[in-house]
Amino acid sequence: MLNAFFLTSATLIARVIGIAFRVYMSNKIGSEGIGLYQLISTIYMFAATFATSGISLAVTRLVTDSIAKKEYRTAKIAISRCFYIGVVLSSIVGIVMFVYSEALSVYILHDTRAILSLKILAPSLPFMSISACFRGYFFAVRQVIKTASEQLFEQIIEILIFSCLIGFFLPKGIEYACCSVVIGTTVAEILSCFYSYFIYKKDVLECNNFEISNKREIYKKIAFIALPVTASSSLRSGLSTVENILIPAGLQKSGESSQKSLAGYGLISGMVMPVITFPSVFLFSFALLLIPEMSEANAVNHKRNINYIVTRVFYITLIYSIMISGIFLFFSNDFGLSIYGSSESGALMSILAPLIPLMYLDGVVDAILKGLNEQLHYLSYNIIDSILRVILIFVLLPIYGLKGLIIVMFFSTILNSFLSMNRLIKVTELKVKIIDWLLKPVAAIVVSCFALNAIFSYEIFEFSSITYKLILEILLAILFYIFILFISGSINNEEFNWIKSYFKRDKISIQKKIVS
Hints:
This protein is an all-alpha fold.
């Protein structure tokens, strides 16, 4: 719980800075520039996924299992092997990306303005892979405050560099404006890698005189965990890249101009989605910590413990995400005007708000499945989802434009979350309480938001700023929501006792260490 608090706090700060950075970027380079940057990011993220996706999870799983079995030397060797594999693989990917940046821009992105940015991003991949290894280690030993500080440090560096360069590059055009962003990304990855290495060396596990597993066996374990994740994630990322390339092209076929198509793509993917996923920081930080918890419980076959944790997390995720969905649904116009000064972005937030519970729940379920060694299943679901998304985008966007993209997003989110949750229920025998977990929270947030809309409709309430009004609306909605859940019995003392038990357990553990 303490790690969740530290990680959530750091990630929350990073998300707030990130949203502010997006607003700053959109004001500087416009929605067309954001769209071009998102296109460049699709290639970059595909390369990053291929180079790093399986390494971090492999380190977390192997170190967690080794510590549980008190094989500390095995843990250290597993880290070093993952380190070497990651560096070699990411270096190869980086070289390919640099050499073929022109071909990628011309034949895949269909925009030569991306060439220079791809060349600048290529050297960052090996450093990203090294950081991923260190991040996996810190998750395994439950010291996430260190990796959270590294990510926060990286983001601050990226923003500072962009702020310094944008004034010089912006007059040269959108191509160079995007370069100011990616230069910040590359430099930030390099500096954060050195920062991670420094804190890792200070914290690295001591070599103890335990038996060490066969080195060949370690490579087999790495391959078993990392290869399926890397292959599946890369395939999904590749399909996602195809999808993101098809979106502007499909919008253009629907009758939009090239500039307006890129702006529409930037509006949804680069401006609206970061805002509606922003509150997930509270859940996804905790979800990342569930991977080693689930892995450790699974390694020693504690089925009851797994079922209890999954039940509580599933319930808390639904309670929280339904509240966030209602707030975005009812106050979307205020969000759009307050953040971007745009009612259009607010309208899109309102349309996509019903998907929030499924999006948040899917992210948490994916983390649990990773910890339970079910990564092949959830990745196969993601691949199926990506294939269907590509097909639907190719068919629907030329006909319906942005409406077609929204239809695809609804279909994809519902399908993916249903498959993942179905697998989790089978593995953990989870029993979902429809009335307490779903119906009561939905009724509570609807009543709360309707009541607030009715109250603020009176002329006696006047606000000097739309932002102040939005903040007050959010706070009151949360208070009303929690109050209604309490009086309806949907929330009780069991949740608080569960949280207290973790703190007591931690206190007892510390006392035992002091005595020993």
